[in-house]
Model the fold of this input.
Amino acid sequence: MDYRLLKILEEETAREKAKKKKKPIFKLRKEKSVMYYSGWHKTQAKKIILIDGGPASGKTTLGKLLVENFNSQGEKSILLDLDSYVEEFCPKWVWDNNKQKEMDLFNARENFIKAINKYLQKNSAVIAIGERFLIGEDVNRYMCKLAPGSSVYLYHLSVPIMVRGARLEQRGHHTVIDLDKDQRERDKIEHWLGYVYRNINSPEVDASNLMQLVNDGIGLIN
Done:
């Protein structure tokens, strides 16, 4: 992280500390909590880690590091990004009409889920990024299509918008991304399904923290 990003992050963090913070809400049915404390989640062979976050929130970076962490503890794993499946149909993310856009996005999501299930059946941990999981309906669309017996974890990455904006500026202009709109939609969510993680540390530390959450069963939603 360069000096400018670090300064922005420090200023944003100081402002937020002055406000009354809302604690992340993690919902887990009682019967599953009992299973967690008995170590049930650690015996599940099939794991899918859904990572939600707006543009420039660090999904790809953390996803790659999580794969390394899983591999280092002897678990097969793979990172799957919905964006790459969309680009199979529309590489430039520009459509002639909404009908074609909706069709391409639908087919990309179907292929994405098929790929997730293929690796779950191989007992690989799957880290899935690129999809938005803001509300329960977003999650249910995937849950109902996943391979039976899979443990599903959901993490929402929370990064100050000024930091995300600086990252996007470094990457270069992208006409598809509306950062302010994404932040407004996220700010409206009062109750998050899963676990909200504030990734403001180094990527290595944040990946290690997320890995610990997975190992402890925190973020498990089924």
Observations:
- DSSP finds ten helices and five strands in the chain.
- The beta strands are 47-52, 77-81, 125-129, 151-158, 195-198.
